[in-house]
Write a structure and sequence with these properties.
Shape: globular
Radius of gyration: 22 Å
Strand content: 15-25%
Order of helices and strands: EEHEHHEEEEEEEEHEHEHEEEHEHEEEEH
């Protein structure tokens, strides 16, 4: 399926929030706290792309073994079926649809997170942790289009929302600027070759993905035909910064090296590390040592490369003797996408592999395949290994959960949609802290128990009292996990009640009690 332009805004006002006066308290789940927390967030990795979720063997050999010492969650979800809104929700504890402008961000977007808000990394700092962010950011940086000067210190950025150290790519690997930004400075920039970025027109003398298509080492399928960097067409244009531009084949290694350097530097202190991999997002250009590791072409090889990246980070924790002191969460920002704009033979070589497993849909869609995720939690010696957990969990819950595990008591205004799932993390028999959950694609959907309601109306419509709930979709996931039978006409009262609940959540500006 071709890439579609995601909804920039659902037109809903953001909840009024204020920075809390944070206090510390013992977590209700346990008196033991993780000294360190590592969050590894893959990109576009589907439920069915991780072999231990019952899918194609051999794609994720390390995770298949690693999960035996941890817990495999089976009802975990991203709060959105695309990247920017999910990452916004993870770090702010707020559903992204509450804030206009948090759709898929262009590479030159302004920072989307209000720097005065309480955030997950700020709470980790307040608990005594050193915080680091490495890899994909895609939440904007600097003042925005036409204003951000990539040749000077860039602010605001990740360092302004609670991270002590950042090594980031500004947006995605298929968007300009194709450079790394470390603590607000472009890495390796030659001052005599300044960077210019825009999303309207190319610069004289620069290669062009349409005009120079025959020279590309990876052809584009739709879009991705503007600037050419490393022989690959991108979205957006850039000029200059030739020495600073990344080489796609080296990206996974560089992110792992930076993540492990952060761990090494802070091994004697409590730390929180966010590692956002590019894998398996397009363009999929794995390092040569992974090419041919799978029969599925670049997409499969990039999955194998992601698995190896995780291995190297976990091995660093083991070598330093930190594994038993570290809570690790491994998941994805949304469901999978096969063809997403490049001719990398992902469709032709897919065979019997099902990236979404048996779930319907994929990235960009409101169905389970768009937001139900692989979600592995490990804390050796504290969390019993080898189990599964069927509790309903959303990535927006990570903020409140990590805060509870670190003994941080939230003020009522902080992280308004984030639920403390610490008891669920530590005990598979503990019920989820959630009674319902909202996910977004081009619209919203609501989960309550085994029931799922997708709002009516065309894409880009936020639900209102004017919408007829019976024009929406209603599924009983316990009987119909593939979402094939729309029961909205058969159970009209349930559809009406769930529509009303969704409207209540929207109007309240929060969902956490």
């Amino acid at each position: 399926m071709n890439r579609r332009t995601f909804l920039k805004s659902l037109g809903l006002g953001a909840a009024a929030l204020c920075l809390p006066s944070t206090t510390f308290a013992s977590t209700t789940a346990t008196t033991k706290r993780p000294r360190n927390i590592v969050l590894i967030l893959a990109d576009d990795l589907g439920w069915g792309d991780v072999s231990c979720y019952g899918s194609t063997p051999g794609l994720t050999p390390f995770l298949d073994q690693y999960v035996k010492g941890g817990v495999r969650f089976t009802d975990a979800h991203s709060p959105a079926s695309t990247c920017t809104p999910t990452r916004y929700a993870v770090f702010t504890g707020q559903y992204a649809w509450r804030k206009p402008g948090t759709g898929i961000a262009p590479g030159d977007a302004a920072l989307l997170i209000d720097t005065t808000l309480p955030t997950l990394p700020k709470l980790m700092q307040q608990s005594g942790m050193v915080t680091g962010a490495v890899g994909k950011w895609h939440l904007g940086m600097g003042p925005g289009p036409g204003k951000t000067d990539w040749n000077k210190p860039i602010s605001p950025s990740g360092n302004d929302v609670g991270f002590d150290y950042t090594f980031l790519m500004a947006a995605t690997a298929d968007r300009t600027p194709c450079v790394y930004v470390e603590n607000g400075l472009v890495v390796g920039l030659d001052p005599n070759d300044p960077i210019e970025v825009n999303y309207k027109h190319n610069y004289p003398g620069e290669p062009d993905g349409k005009r120079d298509r025959a020279t590309l080492k990876m052809d584009w399928d739709v879009g991705h035909n503007q600037a050419v960097v490393n022989g690959i067409g991108r979205i957006g244009y850039m000029k200059g910064g030739k020495k600073a531009r990344w080489v796609d084949e080296d990206m996974a290694d560089i992110f792992v090296e930076k993540a492990n350097a952060f761990i090494e530097k802070n091994k004697d202190k409590p730390f929180f590390l966010y590692l956002g991999t590019n894998d398996i997002h397009v363009p999929r250009v794995p390092h040569p040592r992974f090419v041919g590791k799978t029969p599925f072409g670049p997409r499969g090889d990039a999955t194998y490369q992601f698995d190896d990246s995780v291995r190297r980070v976990i091995e660093k924790l083991r070598v330093l003797g930190l594994e038993k002191e570290t809570l690790v969460v491994i998941t994805s920002d949304n469901g999978p996408m096969v063809n997403d704009g490049y001719k990398d033979k992902a469709v032709e070589l897919l065979g019997n592999h099902k990236p979404s497993g048996d779930w319907r849909g994929h990235k960009y869609t409101p169905y389970e395949g768009g937001h139900r995720l692989p979600f592995i939690v490990s804390w050796p010696g504290t969390i019993p290994g080898g189990g599964t957990n069927a509790a309903l969990v959303s990535l927006v819950d990570l903020g409140a959960t990590f805060a509870a595990l670190r003994g941080v008591q939230l003020s009522p205004d902080a992280l308004p949609d984030s639920f403390d799932q610490s008891a669920t993390f530590l005990d598979a028999s503990a019920p989820s802290a959630r009674k319902n959950m909202v996910c977004q694609d081009f619209r919203l959907n609501l989960r309550e128990g085994n029931w799922k309601y997708i709002v009516p109306g065309p894409a880009r419509n936020a639900p209102t009292e004017r919408h007829d709930p019976l024009n929406g979709q209603l599924y009983d996931l316990s009987a119909d996990p593939s979402e094939k039978q729309n029961l909205v006409k058969k159970h009209p009262e349930r559809a009406k009640a769930m529509h009303a609940t969704l409207l209540k959540i929207i109007k309240a500006g929060r969902s956490r009690p």
